[in-house]
Amino acid sequence: MDPVVTHGWTAVPVDADIVKKEHAKIQSPPKALSIDSIPAPKSPIVNTVKAYAQQRLPQPTFNHSMRVFYYGRAMQLQHFPDWKFSDETYMLCCLLHDIGTTPENLRATMMSFEFYGGMLSYSLLTKEGVDKALAEAVMEAVVRHQDVGKIGKITAVGQLLQLATIFDNMGGHSELVHEETIKSVVAAHPRLGWSKCFHDTIREENGLKPWAHTTALGEEDFPNGVLNNKLMAPYDNMK
Asked: What's the rounded Cα separation, in Å, for the pair 177 and 189?
């Protein structure tokens, strides 16, 4: 097993536009996929981390984490077939990427939520005895999942996490996921007013920590973009 391949360490551009242009095999339009056609891994470590996340994340945040898995896998399967990292690695990234946003964790540290979340993720995974390359891959992806930009590289699994979170949070990269796929994913993992929920979390962290890394995305542009996610508005309050 090559850990670079298995755990998504392959370097790709951090610029999503370059990734979509040069590293993807875009299927246009994307295929409609049901959630049943995207199997979720059920290994012992995934089960442990899923239980950990469910116990600590508010329901809207846990549902978001699951939607990010399914949207990201839909993108990977259709547009990035050369990215061969395991669905287990990606699932762990998804389950833990927002662990730093809980009210308790926001107040447990001076650090930005992604950095503290990365530390918590690494601590949990190493405690559970996973391979070091896996624990570090998850930590890196969690720390950098809001590190969007135009210059430099990122891990492949980290880039997929960025693409899927931006899609669910702001409706970006909408050309990569079919509308019917959205409907299937939301039916299984409802948004529960996610746009307002995450907007409020951004405002909360920026109020507590005016130095937070989230401010790099725009102190007004980012929370307002989340709140006014037009792509997901029809689904935001579906039950």
From this structure: 16
Look up residue 226 and give its amino acid.
Answer: V
Helix (H), strand (E) at residue 106: helix 103-106
Q: pLDDT by residue (tens digit) across 172-191?
A: 999 999 999 999 999 999 99
Tell the residue number behind the tokens 């909408």, with chain if given: 174
Continuous H helices in the chain: 3-6, 16-18, 44-56, 59-79, 87-96, 103-106, 113-127, 132-143, 156-170, 179-188, 194-208, 221-227
User: Which residue is listed with tokens 């650090």?
Assistant: 111
Residue 163, number of CB atoms within 10 A of its CB: 26
> For residue 192, is it left (φ>0), alpha (ψ between -120 and 50) or beta?
left
* Overall pTM surpassing 0.90 (yes/no): yes
Distance, C-alpha 135 to centroid of its chain: 16
